[in-house]
Design goal:
This protein has 226 residues and is mainly beta. Helices cover 8% and strands 38% of the residues. The chain is globular.
Amino acid sequence: MKNLFQNFDKEVVKMEITGKKVLKGKIIDNSSEMVVLFDGEEFLYIPVCHIHEITIDNSNEDGLEIPSTLTQDKIFNGTKEEMTLLKVLAKTLGGYLEIRVLNNQPLHGYISNVLQDYIVFQSPIYKQMFIPIQHLKTLVPYNQNQKPYRLSDDEFSIHASNEIFQSTFEAQMGTLKNKLTVLNIGEKNNFTGIISEVKGTMVVFQPARENMIHYNMQHIKTIHLS
């Protein structure tokens, strides 16, 4: 896989990821799990499993210019350490990020905890969120001294979390039973309601006025308390 990505060395590429999102830039680093794309302004860390296709952008209609001397990413800085998704999450822990989970809505904030198969993400908009790692499509570290929405420390700042979380997403969902929650940032009207039960990979969910709905947990990308 690494040799395949090296075919695009020094080329401006177009990359389609899950959700039909098209990214453009230069591949700065890669491994069997991750690709780092520099788009002219920021470094995007992209799990390989979410890359659908890559093509060389011969026309480069956007006039994207990538410095020829740029060879190091922001997190690993050219070290020989193998880049994995879990290492990226660990190295960005407690730093401001933009992450993309749902197709067209980036989330801003910071990761406070990395568990076995999900992260705890602190957002100034949605507060504490639980996000399965498998649904992380891109991670973009903020520049130093930059904060989401230019909020002040009083409005939003990084705090160490002493809260105890369950090791798996399924188990953590169980702790939210009988609480008013929002799934997938409320993409649909029936994504706000109360978790009645968690049965294996199925979540029994009570919307406001509709009948109970059984959701497959594999397709729950975010959850937070209302």
